[in-house]
Fold this sequence. Notes:
This protein is of the alpha/beta class. It has twelve helices and nine strands.
Amino acid sequence: MTTQDLPRMTIGWIGTGRMGFAMAARLLRAGCSVQVFNRTRSKAEPLAALGAKIVDTPADLAGCDVVFTMVSTSDDLWEVVAGSRGLLSGQRAPKILVDCSSVSEEMSVKVRAAALERGAQMLAAPVSGNAKVVEAGKLTVVVSGPSATYETVRPFLQRLGVGVSYVGEGERARIVKICHNLLLGTVIQTLAEITVLAQKAGITRHAFLDFINSSVMGSTFTRYKTPALVHLEFKPTFTLPLLRKDLDLGLKAGEKFGVTLPLVQLTRDVVQSAIERGDVERDFAVLLLHAASGAGLSLQPETDAVDDGLH
């Protein structure tokens, strides 16, 4: 798809944390007209070099055709959409709201209703990946909401990465993303445990993970987490408090639908324990260090060059 194939629509973007910044940058590089708000303005200002107009409040984006939101929590989403200076607080409203955050189904319903009252259609469009995945063009998106609205916005969503999956009306994308992040949490904990087991038996992390990544069990996720696990570099892409939030959402969904999730509960307990020890800022791959500590093993960075599989 070329820039000429994109609809001629003005884009608003709310939230330029690690993910939001990278996603907005992709739309700007595709030639889109993008106006940006972030609560901490300085985090959005570098996007001006790519052509973004930085605004002072979410309400300043109400005149845009489409507004994307990418925020941390359900409460944050409500604040930027329906708060005192939120997107819907003035006389105007955008035609379409696209929320890419990982929030509860209940909040998604509430925000959708508020948008509809103002004549705006909403898509739930949570994503899979981190900022490095976005930059590599490998982000994936799951979407639910009105099908006609999805078709209107699909060209922009396709610009964000490699895969866009439409799963139907309403909030279905929310449960898909929750299920995705339950898998994410249980996989990183399993990967941490078995890597520690292999190392305690005398195998280097580099050699063990090279085997896993080359096997049928290897995945995009295990490959792009390998540098962190080998080099013990835990610059945050996704923190333990954010993972705990999603595990809690998943356990709540399990109660709602009558599905027991014992492995998810155990993982949630491990994550909670790590948070109580003060691990709230580092990447969630730091679970490796907690698994090692439980095994009486002190890890040291390995210097072997490893590929994250993204390029």
